[in-house]
Each structure stands twice: as C-alpha cells, then as structure tokens.
Amino acid sequence: MYEPTKKDKFAFGLWTVGNRGADPFGPVVRPRMDPPEIVSRLGELGVWGVSFHDNDLVPLGASPKERDAIVARFRKALAASDVTVSMATVNLFSHPVFRDGAFTAPSFDVRRYALQKTMAAIDLGVELGAKIFVLWGGREGSESDAGKDAVEALKRYREGLNFLTHYVKDKKYTLRFALEAKPNEPRGDIYLSTNGSMLGFIETLDHPEIVGVNPEVAHETMAGLNFYHVVAQSIEAGKLFHIDLNAQKIGRYDQDLRFGSEDFKGAFYLVKLLEESGYAGPKHFDAHAYRTEDIEGVWQFAAGCMRTYKILQHKAALFARDKEIQALLKEQKPTPPYSRKTASAIAATRYDIDRLAAKGADYERLDQLVTDLLAGARGQTLSAS
Fold it and tell me: Is 56 a catalytic residue?
C-alpha cells in the first residue's frame, strides 16, 4: 500500500540525496556520490524523477567536451533506471562572485554573467527533458540596507527574469519557470521573501503565463506561515508549477528535514490538498538525511519521505470516506455574483445575528476526529467503509 509508483511523480534532487552532511561547524561526513549512481539508486527505490542544479551535474569550468561526456553518461543512467529529469535549476549562490546577489547584484558584469550561466543551465535542462526550471534567489538580498536600494534591486530582478522568459520564448522551449521564496539564509534578508510576494511579483513580468511558484515547506515555515494555506493560494491562482516537500521546526535555520518528520497534521492537510486539487506536477523532496547517517542511511531517508507521503495519502482517502467526519463538514454555498436584484435582496433580508452568533462550529470535535484518524485510533472499520 505504501510503496511508491511512477504515477506518484516523486522526485529528488542530486543535491538532496547527494548531500554530504557538512554544516557551518563541521566538514563533510559522507563520500561524494556520482550522479549516475544516484540515479540508479533512485530508480531502485521506485522514484519517478531527478532534478539538479547545473553544477550538481557539470562542474563549473568544465570544457565543452567534458560537459558532453558527463551529459551522455547521465542520459544513459536515466534510461537504464527509467528515471526522468523532473526539473532543472541553476546555482547562483555558491561561487563568491555571487556574494552580493546575481540578478540584483550592483555589478553590471555580475548580472550579465548570471544571465549567461542561467541560459546555459536552461539549455542543459531542456536537453535532458526538463519542463520546469526553478529559480531560487538565495543571494538576492542584503545584510545592510545602506548598501542597496531595495526598489532598484527589485527592478533588476524583474529585468533578469524578463530577459530569461524572452530567451525561452525565442528558443521555442516548452519550459515554465517556478520561483522559490525564502525569508532569510544565507542572506540576512532575501528579496521576495515569501510565496505571496512571488505571486504578486509574477504579475509584473512580461510573460507571467510561463512563470509560477515553487513553495517549500521549510522556507514558509521559517517565516511562521501556514504552508497548507500558502499552497492553497498558489493552486487557486493557477500558479503551483512545482513544490518542495520537507519538514521544518519553526524558528530554526533551514533544516530540510525528512518529509512529515515535523508537524504531522500540517503534512496531512498538505497531502490532502495536493491529492484532491488535481495537482499533476512533481512531488519533489528538497530535503536531506541527518548528518548522523552513512550512505545507507541516506537511502532510508529517501524511502521514508515517500512512505510518509503514501501513508498520508491513504489517511486522506479515509478522511473522505469517514461518515462521522463528513457529517460535520457543512455544505457551503458560494457567494452569489453581483446583480442589482441580488444586491437589493441581500439588503432587504433581516438576519438574526444573535442566533447566528450563538451557533458553534463543532471544530473541537472535528479536530479530535482528525487527530484520532492520524493516530490510528480510527480505522477503515470505524465509520470509514
């Protein structure tokens, strides 16, 4: 029941399972895994897709001949493992040249180099079959607002994204962009710090129709937001092009924990939303194993992400079939569209607001039933058949 299938569209990044466990206080604890090896192990686990930053696959400074040889080996591994490239992205945050941003950098040459690097990453992703290109502005921000005009920085950001959307259109690529927000880290403050900010920003671009969002559990939780609500807004706006699944404790650094390992109830509502909304994109686990783990622990981590999703998927089906839970969910009528007749009817209606105010919502009972369901105290034989 909880084994992943290709239909689940589960995906991992080369940098996720390939994370070597370094942190600001200690060096790497695991050996490097070759990208074809990662693809092979993902295939064995039943994973559908793999994603990568440009330099996860092709080292910075590789010659064209070296690049082509690396891509050929990777393509062969994809075919042998029946794994697809679910998404591509670009690293605009590791090299010191980007220490003050990429598209928002004060330096004209740095901004042009960021465009050059991103265009090459787009070409690489398209070559390997990617249909989605994620952009995370990890260095697009500041520590001291004296050094940058935030208004001008946002204008530069827009200029860069407009350039790239025109590039994709000109090349006739069937590629869509997904913008990823984060409030802070590695910068003190990152521009367009929440998913809602990204949704507003997208509408100011030249080609908003090919730009959506890639919300991440950890990033929105760092900002103290309800991720279920964040994703619901993205779906309602028609802009959920990609999603990063992991777990996070509020008030901590970006932890990228195994999916569902924190806020189990929040993870449940997220899975329920994705399954019931008809979201058909990748279910991408942007997380990594604890630093305590060896290589085999990494694969236990990857299997655990998918298993938890499948368990919660099953719980969502039980929720929909539970008669007692469904009886508490009142049918809600939509607000009628405006017309003079409707407006006049509403204005003339007398509402007994004291009676309306006295009626409880029964949410305590409903929430406990959901808790029982998630804890295994309500099964398929308990009002759920």
Answer: yes
